[in-house]
Amino acid sequence: MKYQNNILYLSGNLLKGSIPGLLKQVSHFTLRDLHTIDLQDVADIDSAGVAFLDEIIARTGREQVQIINKSPQVAQSIETFSSLGLKKPAVPARQSFFYQAGQFLYDWWDSLVWGTYLTADILYWSVVCLFRRKGLRKGAVINQGILIGVDALGIISLLSLILGLILALQSAAQLRQFGANIFIADLIAISMVREMGPMMTAIIVAGRSGSAIASEIATMKVTEEIDALRMMALDPVRYVIVPKFHAITICMPLLVTMSTLIGIFGGLIIAVTYLDLTPIAYLNQALNILTLKDVLVGLLKSLFFAWVIVIISSYYGLRVKGGAEGVGKVTTLSVVASIFWVIVLDAINSLIFYF
Amino acid sequence: MDIPLIEIRNLTARYGDETILDNISVDIMPNRITVILGASGCGKTTLIKNIFRLYQPSSGSVKIFGREVTDMDELEYEEILKRIGMLFQNGALINSLNIFDNIAIPLEQHTRLPLEIRDRIIRVKLKQVNLAHTELLTPAELSGGMKKRAALARALVLDPEILVCDEPSAGLDPLTSASLDNLILNLKELLNMTIIIVTHELASIHRIADHLIFLDQGRVIFTGTLAEAKKSTLPAVESFFQVGTF
Q1: C-alpha to C-alpha distance for A345 and A24, rounded to whole angstroms
Q2: B88-110 pLDDT tens trace
Q3: What is the pTM of this model?
Q4: Which member of A124, A193, B95, B160 lies 3.0 to 4.6 Å from B85 by CB, making a disulfide possible if both were Cys?
Q5: Cβ contact B200:B38 at 8 Å
Q6: Which residue of B has its CA nearest to A217?
Q7: Would an 8 Å CB–CB cutoff place A230 in contact with chain B?
């Protein structure tokens, strides 16, 4: 490369590999007065080479820079790949703070209204479809029941057992110091029935089934399956969401009951092996301390949790935007939101029933 | 003179500040194949989705079978949809169901036909689209062309009065595309169907179009027959038929 009398002489091949070095070399020259580029010794040029020439021309700030002595092949490449005259896309102007705040509020309000409509729609059709099966697919509730309930049995049982063992183990050491071994049964029974059973199950169902519901609906949305259902005169809420709602309404209390029993059983293992209680004494104490209210509140909570999980997952599934990335995003959001609302609902429940 | 089956008046669709469809007014006449064509991104699919309320138009009115549907009650509108079949761009088969169950959805939901009659109808529809013996396969096990044909069978299963096909030949080889076109022509003759096709495949347009609606940047710039379109001096229409496809 040579720069003489405002003419830039280039040589060799102007290909992708050589351009970074050439660009460094050219930055040593003051190109303001450049009027000609001589390509006599340039044998080959690719799109990066043409972009390099365009960059040089752009740096001169001139409208016209002559390119001379180019071979026909090089000339053709320049004609094909030249970026001169192509405008950069205009960068959208940054919106003012007030605009962004207004947009945020509008989106929030829109989501709230839409979510309220969807919740009302789901609740309405869930009741109506109990008496009128039109718009529901045969066997869908059973299928969903298997997916949400039966398939979750293993993981919920295992985690509930571990939870019962941990709770019992943590408290056993303390209780033993005061000779209050028998109260391990009270502690485990009350905490499993009132709190840990419903909450643990809800968190697992939110992570497992909630994510599955959100991603299924979101995928159906992006692949136009939801539109196809609409065009077949079918309401996606009735056809897709209501069976899940019915299934989770049946499965959740059963899962919670099982989780609670297994958690209490986990406590029993520690009570027998570590605190030298007999199984009968442990179970008698557990049954004596529990009231009907505890059991009913636990089950009622599980129903609220179940509905919240289905509604939130469906909401996010139907609000998906974009393709695969959008599906992943709404799935994550649905799980986070479901777990958040499960915990908030649990707190509200505790305030209402035990404060 | 025939009464239009679908009347679209001043239909406008906006996303944010962008106008996708600009004041569209066209009629879809019965018993003929109307092709909506134009360059990619000109608003063809958006027009279809706005007509059939899959998207909510910003303004304008749509009458289907002589009834205003823009603000129609959902349950009432479902009765109209039962008379319409739609083939989506990617088929939009329900992935969790096999082909038989996919095609059975409209029959299950909107008829009281006994199972054995439903079975026969589904088998016939699958044969019509050359997909016999694929009943038990899932959509994932079918090729792109087969998926489209299965979706067409589903769209046809209630013998609709209006069939809407969104890019039926896109991504198909010429032979499959031609056989799909022949099937659409047969259906029109046989069932007196009104067919709306969104496409930019010139070969397909030549084979099947009775009437053309040409869109450019969200506006209708031409309506007429294929012969009239070929004589058009509008630059977009002229270049379309000169170059072939966009």
Answers
A1: 63
A2: 988 899 998 999 999 999 998 88
A3: 0.80
A4: B160
A5: yes
A6: B94
A7: yes
